[in-house]
Amino acid sequence: MFSLIGTLIIGFIVGLLGRWLHPGDDKMGIILTTVLGIAGAFFATFAGQALHLYEPGQSAGFIGAVIGAIVLLVLVGVIRKAVK
After folding, report:
1. What is the rounded distance in angstroms from the CA atom of residue 34 to the CA atom of residue 38?
2. Dihedral angle sign, alpha carbons of residues 71, 75, 27, 42
3. What is d(CA 24, CA 16) in angstroms, rounded to the nearest whole number?
4. Tell me: the pLDDT tens digits for 39-75?
5. pTM
């Protein structure tokens, strides 16, 4: 149970850092920010394993999670512009 709470807290912090480092206005609430941070960590983990930067079972670090969150922010921005 504690690891879930820890993951949510780290996801929230990573989401905030990703939004702060990415330029532009991203209209997201607290929940989407947390989801963005958690998804960024998963994205960085799977991308790092695919590029053989991480071993199987090893997760991305904090900086990798922030980079993953920024990549996801860019993708969300591209998709939002394409839908308009």
Report:
1. 6
2. negative
3. 14
4. 888 888 888 888 888 787 777 778 888 888 888 888 8
5. 0.75
Integer Cα distance of 2 and 4 in angstroms: 5
What distance separates the 2 farthest-apart alpha carbons in the chain? 41
pLDDT beyond 60 at 2: no
Pull the structure tokens for residue 50: 């695919």
Q: Degrees (nearest 5) of the Cα angle 72, 33, 17?
A: 75
Question: Whole domain around residue 67: which residue ranges?
Answer: 2-83
Nearest to 48 by CA among 34, 32, 30, 61: 61
* Structural domains counted in the chain: 1
Sign of the torsion angle spanned by Cα atoms 46, 52, 58, 64: negative
The gap between the terminal CA atoms of the chain, to the nearest Å, is 41
